[in-house]
Protein backbone atom coordinates (compact mmCIF):
# COMPACT_ATOMS: atom_id res chain seq x y z
CA UNK A 1 0.00 0.00 0.00
CA UNK A 2 2.74 2.41 0.97
CA UNK A 3 4.40 1.89 -2.33
CA UNK A 4 1.24 2.60 -4.24
CA UNK A 5 0.65 5.72 -2.17
CA UNK A 6 4.19 6.89 -2.77
CA UNK A 7 3.77 6.30 -6.45
CA UNK A 8 0.47 8.13 -6.51
CA UNK A 9 1.98 10.96 -4.53
CA UNK A 10 4.81 11.16 -7.02
CA UNK A 11 2.45 11.22 -9.96
CA UNK A 12 0.38 13.95 -8.31
CA UNK A 13 3.51 15.99 -7.53
CA UNK A 14 4.72 15.81 -11.10
CA UNK A 15 1.30 16.71 -12.40
CA UNK A 16 0.80 13.47 -14.28
CA UNK A 17 -2.50 12.74 -12.56
CA UNK A 18 -5.50 14.98 -13.01
CA UNK A 19 -4.56 16.21 -16.45
CA UNK A 20 -7.70 14.71 -17.88
CA UNK A 21 -7.16 14.16 -21.58
CA UNK A 22 -3.57 13.64 -22.52
CA UNK A 23 -2.20 12.39 -25.78
CA UNK A 24 -0.69 8.95 -26.10
CA UNK A 25 2.77 10.50 -26.17
CA UNK A 26 2.18 11.96 -22.73
CA UNK A 27 0.81 8.65 -21.61
CA UNK A 28 4.06 7.03 -22.63
CA UNK A 29 5.92 9.65 -20.64
CA UNK A 30 3.67 9.11 -17.67
CA UNK A 31 4.28 5.39 -17.90
CA UNK A 32 8.03 5.63 -18.10
CA UNK A 33 8.06 8.13 -15.25
CA UNK A 34 6.05 5.66 -13.27
CA UNK A 35 8.54 2.88 -14.03
CA UNK A 36 11.37 5.15 -12.99
CA UNK A 37 9.80 6.00 -9.67
CA UNK A 38 12.28 3.96 -7.60
CA UNK A 39 15.03 6.34 -8.71
CA UNK A 40 13.38 9.27 -7.01
CA UNK A 41 12.69 7.38 -3.77
CA UNK A 42 15.08 9.27 -1.47
CA UNK A 43 16.08 6.08 0.37
CA UNK A 44 17.62 4.76 -2.86
CA UNK A 45 20.03 7.69 -2.96
CA UNK A 46 21.22 7.05 0.60
CA UNK A 47 24.55 5.42 1.24
CA UNK A 48 24.20 1.64 1.79
CA UNK A 49 23.87 0.81 5.49
CA UNK A 50 26.89 -1.48 5.24
CA UNK A 51 28.96 1.58 4.24
CA UNK A 52 27.59 3.69 7.08
CA UNK A 53 24.28 4.90 5.62
CA UNK A 54 20.84 4.77 7.20
CA UNK A 55 19.18 1.31 6.99
CA UNK A 56 15.98 1.06 4.92
CA UNK A 57 14.26 -0.92 7.68
CA UNK A 58 14.46 -0.20 11.38
CA UNK A 59 11.47 -2.27 12.49
CA UNK A 60 11.77 -5.14 14.92
CA UNK A 61 10.60 -8.50 13.62
CA UNK A 62 7.85 -10.68 15.09
CA UNK A 63 9.53 -12.71 17.81
CA UNK A 64 9.64 -16.48 17.52
CA UNK A 65 8.37 -18.54 19.27
CA UNK A 66 5.16 -16.68 20.03
CA UNK A 67 4.24 -17.16 23.67
CA UNK A 68 0.75 -16.74 25.08
CA UNK A 69 -0.84 -17.23 28.48
CA UNK A 70 -2.50 -20.39 27.11
CA UNK A 71 0.96 -21.95 26.58
CA UNK A 72 1.85 -21.24 30.17
CA UNK A 73 -1.42 -22.77 31.39
CA UNK A 74 -0.93 -25.86 29.21
CA UNK A 75 2.56 -26.52 30.57
CA UNK A 76 1.59 -25.85 34.19
CA UNK A 77 -1.37 -28.17 33.96
CA UNK A 78 0.87 -31.07 32.89
CA UNK A 79 3.49 -30.11 35.46
CA UNK A 80 1.09 -29.99 38.41
CA UNK A 81 -0.76 -33.16 37.40
CA UNK A 82 2.56 -35.04 37.34
CA UNK A 83 1.44 -36.31 33.94
CA UNK A 84 4.89 -35.96 32.37
CA UNK A 85 5.03 -39.15 30.33
CA UNK A 86 3.17 -40.03 27.09
CA UNK A 87 -0.48 -39.61 27.99
CA UNK A 88 -3.59 -37.80 26.91
CA UNK A 89 -1.91 -34.54 25.75
CA UNK A 90 0.29 -36.43 23.29
CA UNK A 91 -2.67 -38.58 22.24
CA UNK A 92 -4.92 -35.57 21.75
CA UNK A 93 -2.19 -33.84 19.77
CA UNK A 94 -1.85 -36.91 17.53
CA UNK A 95 -5.58 -36.88 16.89
CA UNK A 96 -5.69 -33.14 16.20
CA UNK A 97 -2.61 -33.18 13.98
CA UNK A 98 -3.94 -36.11 11.92
CA UNK A 99 -7.22 -34.21 11.56
CA UNK A 100 -5.49 -30.96 10.58
CA UNK A 101 -3.69 -32.82 7.78
CA UNK A 102 -6.55 -35.15 6.81
CA UNK A 103 -4.33 -38.15 7.49
CA UNK A 104 -5.62 -41.36 9.09
CA UNK A 105 -2.80 -41.78 11.63
CA UNK A 106 -0.29 -39.62 13.46
CA UNK A 107 2.53 -40.84 15.71
CA UNK A 108 4.20 -38.10 17.75
CA UNK A 109 7.96 -38.40 18.25
CA UNK A 110 10.75 -36.63 20.12
CA UNK A 111 12.00 -34.75 17.01
CA UNK A 112 11.82 -34.51 13.25
CA UNK A 113 15.01 -36.55 13.09
CA UNK A 114 13.44 -39.39 15.09
CA UNK A 115 10.25 -39.18 12.99
CA UNK A 116 12.37 -39.85 9.87
CA UNK A 117 14.56 -42.39 11.69
CA UNK A 118 11.46 -44.24 12.93
CA UNK A 119 9.90 -44.29 9.45
CA UNK A 120 13.03 -45.88 7.98
CA UNK A 121 13.29 -48.28 10.95
CA UNK A 122 9.67 -49.36 10.58
CA UNK A 123 10.37 -50.09 6.90
CA UNK A 124 13.20 -52.40 8.01
CA UNK A 125 15.93 -50.39 6.30
CA UNK A 126 19.46 -51.40 7.23
CA UNK A 127 23.06 -51.94 6.11
CA UNK A 128 23.38 -52.58 2.37
CA UNK A 129 20.23 -50.62 1.47
CA UNK A 130 20.20 -47.41 -0.55
CA UNK A 131 17.99 -44.42 0.26
CA UNK A 132 17.47 -41.61 -2.25
CA UNK A 133 17.72 -38.04 -0.93
CA UNK A 134 18.05 -34.50 -2.35
CA UNK A 135 21.17 -32.46 -1.54
CA UNK A 136 19.47 -29.11 -0.76
CA UNK A 137 18.21 -29.87 2.75
CA UNK A 138 19.04 -29.87 6.43
CA UNK A 139 21.60 -32.53 7.38
CA UNK A 140 19.04 -34.62 9.32
CA UNK A 141 17.56 -35.91 6.05
CA UNK A 142 20.84 -37.77 5.51
CA UNK A 143 21.77 -38.34 9.16
CA UNK A 144 18.84 -40.75 9.55
CA UNK A 145 20.05 -42.81 6.58
CA UNK A 146 23.50 -43.07 8.19
CA UNK A 147 22.00 -44.07 11.55
CA UNK A 148 20.62 -47.17 9.79
CA UNK A 149 23.97 -47.80 8.06
CA UNK A 150 22.26 -47.40 4.71
CA UNK A 151 23.83 -45.61 1.75
CA UNK A 152 22.45 -42.18 0.82
CA UNK A 153 22.12 -41.66 -2.93
CA UNK A 154 21.75 -38.04 -4.02
CA UNK A 155 19.48 -36.89 -6.82
CA UNK A 156 20.48 -33.41 -8.00
CA UNK A 157 18.39 -30.30 -7.34
CA UNK A 158 16.33 -28.35 -9.83
CA UNK A 159 17.55 -24.74 -9.86
CA UNK A 160 14.10 -23.23 -10.41
CA UNK A 161 12.26 -24.94 -7.54
CA UNK A 162 15.20 -25.72 -5.18
CA UNK A 163 13.67 -29.25 -4.96
CA UNK A 164 14.78 -32.75 -6.00
CA UNK A 165 14.75 -32.86 -9.83
CA UNK A 166 12.11 -35.54 -10.48
CA UNK A 167 13.50 -36.10 -14.01
CA UNK A 168 16.72 -37.44 -12.49
CA UNK A 169 15.10 -39.77 -9.97
CA UNK A 170 14.59 -42.94 -11.97
CA UNK A 171 18.22 -43.14 -13.08
CA UNK A 172 19.29 -43.26 -9.40
CA UNK A 173 17.22 -46.34 -8.60
CA UNK A 174 18.99 -49.70 -8.23
CA UNK A 175 17.80 -53.10 -6.92
CA UNK A 176 19.10 -51.96 -3.51
CA UNK A 177 16.96 -48.79 -3.33
CA UNK A 178 14.67 -49.22 -0.32
CA UNK A 179 13.23 -45.74 0.17
CA UNK A 180 12.97 -42.28 -1.41
CA UNK A 181 12.98 -39.19 0.82
CA UNK A 182 11.63 -36.18 -1.08
CA UNK A 183 12.12 -33.01 0.99
CA UNK A 184 9.61 -30.16 0.82
CA UNK A 185 12.32 -27.64 1.46
CA UNK A 186 11.32 -24.26 2.82
CA UNK A 187 7.73 -25.50 2.66
CA UNK A 188 7.78 -25.71 -1.15
CA UNK A 189 6.33 -29.09 -2.15
CA UNK A 190 8.44 -31.55 -4.18
CA UNK A 191 6.90 -32.95 -7.37
CA UNK A 192 4.87 -35.70 -5.69
CA UNK A 193 3.08 -36.69 -8.92
CA UNK A 194 6.31 -37.66 -10.65
CA UNK A 195 8.12 -38.99 -7.57
CA UNK A 196 5.21 -41.21 -6.50
CA UNK A 197 4.75 -42.51 -10.05
CA UNK A 198 8.41 -43.59 -10.21
CA UNK A 199 8.19 -45.05 -6.69
CA UNK A 200 5.09 -47.05 -7.57
CA UNK A 201 6.67 -48.41 -10.75
CA UNK A 202 9.58 -49.73 -8.68
CA UNK A 203 7.54 -50.57 -5.55
CA UNK A 204 9.67 -48.32 -3.33
CA UNK A 205 8.25 -46.60 -0.23
CA UNK A 206 8.30 -42.79 -0.08
CA UNK A 207 9.13 -41.15 3.26
CA UNK A 208 8.32 -37.46 2.89
CA UNK A 209 10.45 -34.97 4.79
CA UNK A 210 7.84 -32.31 5.57
CA UNK A 211 9.85 -30.98 8.53
CA UNK A 212 9.60 -27.46 7.04
CA UNK A 213 6.20 -27.91 5.42
CA UNK A 214 3.47 -27.51 8.05
CA UNK A 215 0.11 -27.13 6.27
CA UNK A 216 1.77 -27.22 2.83
CA UNK A 217 -0.46 -28.88 0.24
CA UNK A 218 -0.15 -30.81 -3.01
CA UNK A 219 -3.36 -30.85 -5.05
CA UNK A 220 -5.25 -29.54 -2.03
CA UNK A 221 -4.06 -32.35 0.27
CA UNK A 222 -1.50 -32.03 3.05
CA UNK A 223 2.03 -32.61 1.66
CA UNK A 224 2.79 -35.01 4.53
CA UNK A 225 -0.27 -37.13 3.84
CA UNK A 226 1.13 -38.40 0.50
CA UNK A 227 3.43 -41.40 0.21
CA UNK A 228 4.17 -44.02 2.85
CA UNK A 229 4.83 -41.57 5.68
CA UNK A 230 5.23 -37.81 6.03
CA UNK A 231 7.53 -36.50 8.75
CA UNK A 232 7.32 -33.19 10.61
CA UNK A 233 9.57 -31.33 13.02
CA UNK A 234 8.47 -29.08 15.88
CA UNK A 235 11.96 -27.82 16.65
CA UNK A 236 12.00 -24.22 17.85
CA UNK A 237 12.53 -22.58 14.45
CA UNK A 238 9.73 -24.48 12.67
CA UNK A 239 6.33 -23.02 11.77
CA UNK A 240 4.74 -25.07 14.59
CA UNK A 241 7.07 -25.65 17.50
CA UNK A 242 7.59 -27.00 21.00
CA UNK A 243 11.37 -26.61 21.30
CA UNK A 244 11.85 -30.20 20.16
CA UNK A 245 9.28 -32.60 18.75
CA UNK A 246 8.19 -34.47 15.67
CA UNK A 247 5.33 -36.36 14.05
CA UNK A 248 4.79 -39.07 11.47
CA UNK A 249 1.65 -39.05 9.32
CA UNK A 250 0.47 -42.11 7.44
CA UNK A 251 -2.73 -43.50 5.95
CA UNK A 252 -1.49 -47.09 6.25
CA UNK A 253 -2.51 -48.79 9.50
CA UNK A 254 0.25 -51.42 9.36
CA UNK A 255 2.85 -48.64 8.93
CA UNK A 256 1.31 -46.70 11.84
CA UNK A 257 1.56 -49.81 14.04
CA UNK A 258 5.14 -50.44 12.95
CA UNK A 259 6.20 -46.81 13.55
CA UNK A 260 4.60 -46.87 16.98
CA UNK A 261 6.45 -50.08 17.93
CA UNK A 262 9.78 -48.76 16.62
CA UNK A 263 9.46 -45.47 18.52
CA UNK A 264 8.10 -46.98 21.75
CA UNK A 265 10.06 -50.08 22.86
CA UNK A 266 8.28 -52.52 20.51
CA UNK A 267 4.92 -51.85 22.17
CA UNK A 268 1.66 -52.21 20.29
CA UNK A 269 -0.16 -49.00 19.40
CA UNK A 270 -3.13 -48.74 21.83
CA UNK A 271 -5.56 -48.92 18.87
CA UNK A 272 -3.46 -51.36 16.84
CA UNK A 273 -5.14 -53.91 14.61
CA UNK A 274 -5.34 -57.34 16.27
CA UNK A 275 -3.14 -58.63 13.45
CA UNK A 276 -0.36 -56.12 14.19
CA UNK A 277 2.93 -58.00 14.20
CA UNK A 278 6.45 -56.88 13.30
CA UNK A 279 9.65 -58.51 12.27
CA UNK A 280 12.20 -55.69 12.30
CA UNK A 281 12.92 -56.21 16.01
CA UNK A 282 15.03 -53.10 16.46
CA UNK A 283 13.27 -50.36 18.40
CA UNK A 284 13.87 -47.59 20.89
CA UNK A 285 12.43 -44.74 22.88
CA UNK A 286 11.75 -41.80 20.58
CA UNK A 287 8.64 -40.64 22.42
CA UNK A 288 7.25 -37.14 22.76
CA UNK A 289 6.70 -35.90 26.33
CA UNK A 290 3.40 -34.57 27.68
CA UNK A 291 4.97 -31.11 27.98
CA UNK A 292 5.61 -31.05 24.24
CA UNK A 293 2.15 -32.46 23.48
CA UNK A 294 0.37 -29.88 25.63
CA UNK A 295 2.47 -27.02 24.25
CA UNK A 296 1.82 -28.09 20.66
CA UNK A 297 -1.94 -28.22 21.30
CA UNK A 298 -1.88 -24.62 22.51
CA UNK A 299 0.58 -23.49 19.80
CA UNK A 300 -1.79 -24.86 17.13
CA UNK A 301 -4.15 -21.99 17.96
CA UNK A 302 -4.03 -19.61 14.98
CA UNK A 303 -1.81 -21.86 12.84
CA UNK A 304 -4.01 -21.40 9.74
CA UNK A 305 -4.19 -17.63 10.14
CA UNK A 306 -0.40 -17.44 10.41
CA UNK A 307 -0.04 -19.66 7.34
CA UNK A 308 -2.45 -17.40 5.41
CA UNK A 309 -0.52 -14.30 6.43
CA UNK A 310 2.79 -15.85 5.28
CA UNK A 311 1.22 -16.91 1.97
CA UNK A 312 -0.25 -13.48 1.33
CA UNK A 313 3.00 -11.63 2.05
CA UNK A 314 5.06 -14.22 0.16
CA UNK A 315 2.86 -13.88 -2.95
CA UNK A 316 3.21 -10.10 -2.80
CA UNK A 317 6.98 -10.27 -2.21
CA UNK A 318 7.39 -12.81 -5.04
CA UNK A 319 5.79 -10.33 -7.42
CA UNK A 320 8.01 -7.47 -6.25
CA UNK A 321 11.26 -9.44 -6.33
CA UNK A 322 10.52 -11.04 -9.70
CA UNK A 323 10.68 -7.52 -11.18
CA UNK A 324 14.29 -7.11 -10.04
CA UNK A 325 16.74 -8.53 -12.62
CA UNK A 326 19.09 -10.93 -10.82
CA UNK A 327 16.58 -11.98 -8.16
CA UNK A 328 14.65 -15.23 -8.87
CA UNK A 329 12.25 -16.44 -6.18
CA UNK A 330 11.92 -20.24 -5.97
CA UNK A 331 9.27 -21.38 -8.41
CA UNK A 332 6.52 -23.71 -7.20
CA UNK A 333 4.71 -26.42 -9.14
CA UNK A 334 1.10 -25.59 -10.03
CA UNK A 335 0.01 -28.67 -8.03
CA UNK A 336 1.55 -27.09 -4.91
CA UNK A 337 -1.70 -25.51 -3.75
CA UNK A 338 -0.12 -24.20 -0.56
CA UNK A 339 3.51 -23.42 0.18
CA UNK A 340 4.27 -23.38 3.92
CA UNK A 341 6.93 -20.67 3.45
CA UNK A 342 9.09 -21.82 6.33
CA UNK A 343 11.67 -20.08 4.19
CA UNK A 344 11.26 -17.49 1.46
CA UNK A 345 13.97 -18.69 -0.93
CA UNK A 346 15.43 -16.97 -3.97
CA UNK A 347 18.46 -17.11 -6.21
CA UNK A 348 20.76 -14.11 -6.41
CA UNK A 349 22.76 -13.51 -9.61
CA UNK A 350 25.87 -11.39 -8.93
CA UNK A 351 26.18 -10.64 -12.67
CA UNK A 352 23.13 -8.37 -12.34
CA UNK A 353 24.62 -6.68 -9.25
CA UNK A 354 27.99 -5.45 -10.62
CA UNK A 355 29.53 -8.81 -9.54
CA UNK A 356 28.82 -8.15 -5.87
CA UNK A 357 29.48 -11.56 -4.25
CA UNK A 358 26.47 -13.36 -2.76
CA UNK A 359 27.77 -13.27 0.83
CA UNK A 360 28.50 -9.56 0.57
CA UNK A 361 24.94 -9.06 -0.75
CA UNK A 362 23.61 -10.97 2.27
CA UNK A 363 25.63 -8.79 4.65
CA UNK A 364 24.49 -5.64 2.86
CA UNK A 365 20.86 -6.74 3.11
CA UNK A 366 21.23 -7.57 6.80
CA UNK A 367 22.73 -4.13 7.34
CA UNK A 368 19.61 -2.62 5.68
CA UNK A 369 17.59 -4.30 8.44
CA UNK A 370 16.45 -7.44 6.58
CA UNK A 371 17.40 -10.70 8.34
CA UNK A 372 18.52 -13.21 5.71
CA UNK A 373 20.80 -16.19 5.25
CA UNK A 374 22.88 -17.63 2.40
CA UNK A 375 21.18 -21.01 2.82
CA UNK A 376 22.65 -24.51 2.68
CA UNK A 377 26.10 -25.63 1.61
CA UNK A 378 26.26 -28.79 -0.58
CA UNK A 379 25.17 -31.63 1.71
CA UNK A 380 26.68 -34.33 -0.50
CA UNK A 381 30.14 -32.88 0.23
CA UNK A 382 29.79 -32.31 3.99
CA UNK A 383 32.62 -33.61 6.14
CA UNK A 384 30.35 -35.57 8.50
CA UNK A 385 28.96 -37.56 5.59
CA UNK A 386 32.34 -38.34 4.02
CA UNK A 387 33.72 -39.25 7.46
CA UNK A 388 30.81 -41.63 8.08
CA UNK A 389 31.21 -43.35 4.72
CA UNK A 390 34.95 -43.81 5.27
CA UNK A 391 34.44 -45.02 8.86
CA UNK A 392 35.32 -48.56 9.86
CA UNK A 393 31.71 -49.82 10.21
CA UNK A 394 30.80 -48.51 6.70
CA UNK A 395 33.90 -50.05 5.18
CA UNK A 396 33.04 -53.31 6.94
CA UNK A 397 29.50 -53.34 5.54
CA UNK A 398 30.17 -52.11 1.99
CA UNK A 399 33.87 -52.69 1.31
CA UNK A 400 36.29 -50.07 0.02
CA UNK A 401 35.34 -50.58 -3.61
CA UNK A 402 31.67 -49.67 -3.12
CA UNK A 403 32.54 -46.67 -0.95
CA UNK A 404 35.17 -45.43 -3.43
CA UNK A 405 32.68 -45.82 -6.28
CA UNK A 406 30.14 -43.83 -4.27
CA UNK A 407 32.66 -41.05 -3.63
CA UNK A 408 33.53 -41.03 -7.36
CA UNK A 409 29.99 -40.49 -8.59
CA UNK A 410 28.88 -38.21 -5.77
CA UNK A 411 28.26 -35.14 -7.95
CA UNK A 412 25.33 -32.70 -7.91
CA UNK A 413 26.46 -29.88 -10.21
CA UNK A 414 23.12 -28.08 -10.30
CA UNK A 415 22.95 -28.10 -6.52
CA UNK A 416 26.48 -26.70 -6.30
CA UNK A 417 25.27 -23.74 -8.37
CA UNK A 418 22.12 -23.42 -6.26
CA UNK A 419 24.13 -23.34 -3.02
CA UNK A 420 26.32 -20.58 -4.48
CA UNK A 421 23.35 -18.40 -5.39
CA UNK A 422 20.67 -19.10 -2.78
CA UNK A 423 19.44 -16.60 -0.21
CA UNK A 424 16.49 -16.94 2.14
CA UNK A 425 14.35 -15.09 4.64
CA UNK A 426 12.93 -16.87 7.69
CA UNK A 427 9.21 -17.38 8.15
CA UNK A 428 8.77 -14.66 10.78
CA UNK A 429 9.76 -12.01 8.22
CA UNK A 430 6.51 -12.97 6.45
CA UNK A 431 4.40 -12.49 9.61
CA UNK A 432 4.33 -8.75 8.87
CA UNK A 433 2.65 -6.68 6.14
CA UNK A 434 2.86 -5.51 2.51
CA UNK A 435 4.51 -2.28 3.59
CA UNK A 436 7.38 -4.30 5.02
CA UNK A 437 7.59 -6.37 1.82
CA UNK A 438 7.83 -3.08 -0.13
CA UNK A 439 10.73 -2.06 2.08
CA UNK A 440 12.51 -5.40 1.51
CA UNK A 441 12.25 -4.85 -2.26
CA UNK A 442 13.45 -1.29 -1.77
CA UNK A 443 16.45 -2.49 0.27
CA UNK A 444 17.41 -4.89 -2.54
CA UNK A 445 17.01 -2.14 -5.16
CA UNK A 446 19.17 0.13 -3.02
CA UNK A 447 21.91 -2.50 -2.85
CA UNK A 448 21.63 -2.99 -6.60
CA UNK A 449 22.02 0.73 -7.22
CA UNK A 450 25.16 0.89 -5.06
CA UNK A 451 26.47 -2.62 -5.84
CA UNK A 452 29.68 -1.26 -7.40
CA UNK A 453 30.52 0.75 -4.27
CA UNK A 454 29.62 -2.19 -2.04
CA UNK A 455 31.94 -4.45 -4.01
CA UNK A 456 34.83 -2.03 -3.58
CA UNK A 457 34.03 -0.84 -0.04
C1 LIG B 1 14.34 -29.48 11.02
C2 LIG B 1 14.51 -30.47 9.97
C3 LIG B 1 14.72 -31.84 10.22
C4 LIG B 1 14.98 -32.39 11.58
O1 LIG B 1 14.07 -32.02 12.54
P1 LIG B 1 14.56 -31.92 14.08
O2 LIG B 1 13.25 -31.76 14.79
O3 LIG B 1 15.45 -30.74 14.20
O4 LIG B 1 15.22 -33.19 14.42
C5 LIG B 1 14.76 -32.70 9.15
N1 LIG B 1 14.65 -32.27 7.89
C6 LIG B 1 14.47 -30.97 7.59
C7 LIG B 1 14.33 -30.55 6.16
C8 LIG B 1 14.42 -30.02 8.62
O5 LIG B 1 14.28 -28.73 8.31
Tell me how many strands there are.
13
Task: Note the gap between the termini.
Answer: 34 Å
Number of helices: 18
Mean pLDDT: 92
- Helix/strand structural class: alpha/beta
In which order are the strands of the major sheet placed? 1-9-8-5
Question: Could you tell me the strand content as a percent range?
Answer: 5-15%
According to CATH, the homologous superfamily of the domain at 69-301 is Type I PLP-dependent aspartate aminotransferase-like (Major domain)
**Percent range of helical residues:** 40-55%
CATH class term of the domain at 69-301: Alpha Beta
Shape annotation: globular
Q: Largest beta sheet, briefly?
A: 4 strands, mixed
Reported CATH architecture of the domain at 69-301: 3-Layer(aba) Sandwich
Which small-molecule species are bound to the chains here? pyridoxal-5'-phosphate
Rg from Cα? 25 Å
Might you state the CATH topology name of the domain at 69-301? Aspartate Aminotransferase, domain 2
Low-confidence stretches: 1-36
